[in-house]
Amino acid sequence: MASQNIVHLVPNAILKQQTNLQHRYWQIRLLVLHKLAVMFYISQGNRCKKTTYDHFFAEGVPKSTIYDTTKRFENSGNIEYKPLSGRLKTVATIQAIRKIKSAFEKKPAKAKKVVPRYVQNQEARARSGARFVCDKVRQKRLVIDDETYVPKNSKNVLDENFTIAQILKILNSMIKSNITPNFLKETRKLCTNGVQKENGEHGSLNDLKGRGRKRGTSCPKAEEKLRIKEKCDIRSYRKQKVPRRSADQQDRALKRAKQLYNLLLNGKERCSLMNDETYIKMDTKTLPGQQLYTAKKREVVTFTEPNVRKRLLAVYRKHKDPPLFSPDLALAHYAQSTLELLKAGKVDFVSKDINPSNCPQLRSIEHYWAIVKRKTRRDNMKEFKKNWGAAVRKVDAKSVQN
């Protein structure tokens, strides 16, 4: 028996070694072909691709190979062969096919799952948490959603997840909890593979019969509970990452901020208009979604002449003393067409060389807009103006800095 096993194993090892050598041979051969194609392509004065295709196609080389080689050389200047991802293909011998068939016939739905690796700290933390939950829910009913699916028909499931003893235990606990089969039939959702899960309409236990809200209905008590955060003036905010700044950017922002501060300090009682691209909607229901527009240049639509005349100049001319317009560093704000419009309207603006870049801490007006915007959400213009005035009086420099 031992000698027979050795006889069967030796051909497989030789075939695998031959496959690797053969694969490496084709890699070297393809690399040489790429070099020859590029040398022939460069040797021609006008670098005609059609002549290169026809030359190698006459020798039996596909045109797609030469096309990819020349394209890679033009884009990156590299002609090396990059092997494809994944394992190398092996020869489908009779022994390999027989092993795969026998393994599949034994367990058709076999799937390997990696056991999670717990370090010592995680295991101790899990035990202490389980002990705390056990003490907390002692003599109380506990519902745990562990994403375990109960098969409606065991014949539809290839892999048996439950033994007879486990099923009897589940049925016994269901009887003690006064859960009838009719109730389970109503609250379970049938999937295409015959697997059911005890769940509600929207995938939550709150959507079960007699719990919380369902689609198309409303419960006053549930609505009152949902408004607790609103009554306590508690809101959920989206986390924002602080932009990464290099040492050069930080130094340049501080220098520009100092120059801007000196410019504003020299002009006494001078107003500063800052464009932070923040818009306040009177009614949030009218907020538009994602929209597209067509243009040859981006700044043509962003900062057209009517926008400067109707909006910027209208606010600019209402002040007795000419204010200072301070835009952000968007490309459209310092485009040539925009600068010409601002100069034609005699608008005094902060030049690009003293505008602090990538430094939101120096632009407190953005924080001010965000605070006031939360206090001005109303449905008509009269309420909007009233609340806007009240919000402006309440929001001061101290609240913005905090």
Topology, element by element:
Blueprint (H helix, E strand, L loop, with lengths): L1 H42 L5 H9 L5 H14 L17 H13 L13 H17 L13 E2 L12 H13 L4 H7 E3 L4 E4 L21 H7 L1 H4 L15 H20 L5 E4 L22 H5 L2 H12 L7 E4 L8 H9 L19 H10 L7 H14 L2 H5 L1
Parallel strand pairs: 4-5
Antiparallel strand pairs: 1-3, 2-3
Helix pairs in contact: 1-3, 2-3
Structure, explained:
Residues 196-221 are annotated as: Disordered. This is DUF4817 domain-containing protein. The protein has 16 helices and five strands. By secondary structure, it is mainly α. Among the domains are: 2-106, no CATH class; 141-199, no CATH class; 247-362, no CATH class. A three-stranded antiparallel β-sheet has the order 1-3-2. The chain has a two-stranded parallel sheet with strand order 4-5. β2 and β3 form a beta hairpin. It is flat.
Summarize the structure.
The chain is mainly alpha-helical and 402 residues long. Helix content is 50%, strand content 4%.
Q: What structural class is derived from the secondary structure elements?
A: mainly alpha
- What amount of the residues lies in strands? under 5%
Q: Based on Cα principal axes, name the global outline.
A: flat
What is the average per-residue confidence, as pLDDT, rounded to a whole number?
A: 61
Give helix % range. 40-55%
Number of strands: 5
Enumerate the strands of the largest sheet in spatial order, edge to edge or round the barrel: 1-3-2
Q: What is the tally of helical segments?
A: 16
Strand count, sense and barrel status of the largest sheet are: 3 strands, antiparallel
